[in-house]
Amino acid sequence: MRRTFKKSLAWRERAKNALVGGGQPHKQSNPPQPIMIAGAKGSHFWDADGNDYIDYLMGYGPMILGHAYPTVITAVANALEQGNVYNVGHTLEIELAEKLIEIIPSADRVAYFVGGSDATTGALKFARAYTEKDKVIRCGYHGWHDWCHSTRGHLAASAEATLSVGFNDIDALENLFKENPGEIAGLIMEPSGHDLPKENYLENVKSVVNSNDALLIFDEVKTGFRYALGGAQEYFDVTPDMSVFGKALANGFATAVVVGRQDIMDEVSDVWVAATFHGEVSLVSAAMATIAELEAKDGVEFMWKQGQKLLDGYKEITDRLGIDQARIAGIAPMPFFGLNANSDKESLFRRTFYEATLDGGLYLPEGHIWFMSMSHSDDDITKTLNVCEDALKLAKAKM
Ligand SMILES: Cc1ncc(COP(=O)(O)O)c(C=O)c1O
Fold first, then answer.
1. Fewer CB within 10 A of the end CB, N or C, for the chain?
2. Residues near ligand 1 with C-beta < 6 Å?
3. Are both 84 and 220 inside the same structural domain?
4. What does the pLDDT look like over 43-101, one tens digit per residue?
5. 113 with 243: CB under 8 angstroms?
C-alpha cells in the first residue's frame, strides 16, 4: 500500500506562514515527497504521518553514530548538570582539543566554532592574517557565507576575492597562482567526496600551494571521522597546513573546529574569532562522547564495511538488471549511488526510482553522497538493496 503524506503536507502549509520561504530550500527539494520529520532513532526517522525510513542523509553528515545516540545524550545531560555556557575558559574544551591533536595529523592547536560555515570562514581569516594576502581559492562547498556562496544579497567584494578551481585540476590551480602572483592567501578544498583524488593529486596540490607561499586548508567537514578518525588527510596521508572539522565531530551538536600547525596557529593567536557559543559545554561534551564511541567500537571500520556492502550490492544489481544510467561513486563510508537523467526518459526512470524507494521506506539523498553511520545494521543494508532492486525493476517496467 502506498504511503500517505497528509500530515506532512499540512505542516508544509503551516511552514509557509511561519518560516522564511517555507523553510530552507534544500529541505524542500530532496527527496520528491515533501515529508516532515517527527522523530528519529539510530539509522531511522519517521515523518508526521508515521511513515518510517532508513535514513542515508543522516543530517547531511553529522549523525555518525546514529540519531538520539544514548552515550552522547547521557554525556551531554551529565555535563549540563554543571552548566552550559560560562564564557570563561573551561577544562572540557582543553580535554577535547588534546584529543583532536592526538587523532588529527594537521592538528597542533585547536580553535572552536559553531557550524561548518563559521569555521571555514574562520580558517580563511587565519590564512589571510598569516600570509597578509587577501585572495583565496576554494574547491568545493564550504558554507553559506558571502565569500563562498554568491546569492542575492551577498557582498560582491567578498565574492571577488574568492577564486574557484575544479577538483582534480592541478593545471587550473597552477594557472590561478600565475594569474594572481603574490595575492593568494590559501586554498581551501574538500580533499575528497563524490570524486576521489587522482593519484598524487593531493600531494601536488600541497606542493603548488606551499611553493606559492600560501596555505593549504582541508575542509574535512564531511570527510572528517568517516574516511578515518583523523579524516581524509589520514587516509590519503597528506597533511595540510590547517583543517576544518564539523558535522560528525559531535554527532549532531553544532560544534566545529579549525586545527592547524603550531607555528601558523601561534602566529595568528591574536586574530579575533571569538563568539559566545564557541566551545560551550554541550557541544564539547557531545564531541568527546562521539569520539570515545567511535574509538571504542571501531566505528570507522564498521562504516567502511557497511558502505562497501551497499556499493557492491548496487553494482551487482545494476549490472544484472542492465541499468545503463546507474552511477556509482564515492567511497564506502560516503557512498554515492545515482541515476543519470539526461533525457525525459531517464528523468522518468529516476523519478520513479526515488518515489518507489521512498515508498519502500528509504530516505536516499538524490544527487548527493550518502552518509553511513554506526547504526546502519545488516538488516538495513539488506532491506535497502531489496527495495532498490524492486524500485529499479519497477522503473524499468515503466520504460
Ligand atoms: C565540506 C563542507 N564545508 C562546510 C560546510 C558548511 O557547514 P555548515 O552547514 O555546518 O555551516 C558544509 C555543509 O554542507 C560542507 O559540506
1. N
2. 60, 115-117, 120, 140-143, 190, 219, 221-222, 246
3. yes
4. 999 999 999 999 999 999 999 999 999 999 999 999 999 999 999 999 999 999 999 99
5. no
165 within domain boundaries: yes
Q: From residue 124, give the alpha-carbon distance in Å to each of 114, 133, 259, 331.
A: 15, 11, 12, 28
Atom of ligand 1 nearest to the CA of 118: 11
Element (H, E) at 357: helix 344-359
**Would the pLDDT of 33 be above 70?**
no
Structural contact between residues 76 and 253, judged by C-beta atoms closer than 8 angstroms: yes
pLDDT tens figures, 170-212: 999 999 999 999 999 999 999 999 999 999 999 999 999 999 9
For the chain, the distance separating the N- and C-terminal CA atoms, rounded to the nearest angstrom, is 22
Atom of ligand 1 nearest to the CA of 117: 11
Q: Same domain, yes or no, for 54 and 139?
A: no
Judge if 54 and 76 occupy the same domain: no
